[in-house]
Amino acid sequence: MLVDLKQRTDSDEVKELLAYAVIDEPDALWRTSVEYGSKASLQLYGWEEEGLLVGLAGFEETEDGSLEIRHIAVLPENRGKGYARGIILELLAARNPRYLLAETEDEVAADFYRNLGFMVYSLGENPAGIEIFRCVYEVEEDEDEE
């Protein structure tokens, strides 16, 4: 079940999941947690299974009606079970954005998005020589709405 985590950013279970998705640098986890708790444009949702928070996605709602995924994580012991896919599909259904966007430096993550129907574009390499990918999912309009 998808749950709003906006008011739970200080909980240990949310911080544990965010730690899997945040760059490993001093204060990054703390800054990210504070941002999700304080910025209205940032949303944080998680997937609970039998009372256990197994995954989360943090995203920003943009002025053009898009959702930009900033963080997504699943507990290591629950990876490969479809939770990240479920979170994204639930966000699409609940928020009905024009586009769903993500950026990643991880080729496995780029393949994950590609397998969900995202178009994946290379943005080139960052200064450290790591390739960055832009992932874009364009939501099709309902034929009934035409």
Description:
It comes from Paenibacillus jilunlii. Pfam families: Acetyltransf_7 (PF13508). One of its GO terms (molecular function) is acyltransferase activity, transferring groups other than amino-acyl groups. This is GNAT family acetyltransferase. The structure is a single chain. The protein has a domain of 97 residues: Gcn5-related N-acetyltransferase (GNAT) (Aminopeptidase). Helices cover 29% and strands 34% of the residues. It has a 7-stranded mixed β-sheet, with helices on both faces. The model has no long low-confidence stretch (mean pLDDT 91). It is globular, with a radius of gyration of 15 Å. The protein is built from 4 helices and 7 strands, in the order E-H-H-E-E-E-H-E-H-E-E. Strand 6 and strand 7 form a beta hairpin. It has 146 residues and is of the alpha+beta class.
Outline of the structure:
InterPro entries: Acyl_CoA_acyltransferase (IPR016181), GNAT_dom (IPR000182). By secondary structure, this protein is an alpha+beta fold.
Largest sheet: 7 strands, mixed
**CATH-defined architecture of the domain at 2-98:** 3-Layer(aba) Sandwich
DSSP summary, beta strand count: 7
Could you tell me the CATH topology label of the domain at 2-98.
Aminopeptidase
Q: Which secondary-structure class do the elements indicate?
A: alpha+beta
Cα Rg: 15 Å
On the 0 to 100 scale, the average pLDDT is 91
Low-confidence regions: none
N-to-C series of helices and strands: EHHEEEHEHEE
CATH superfamily of the domain at 2-98: Gcn5-related N-acetyltransferase (GNAT)
Residue share in helices? Answer: 25-40%
Our estimate of the beta-strand percent is: 25-35%
Tally of contiguous helical segments:
4
Describe the strand arrangement of the main beta sheet, using strand numbers.
1-2-3-4-5-7-6
* Alpha carbon gap, first and last residue: 31 Å
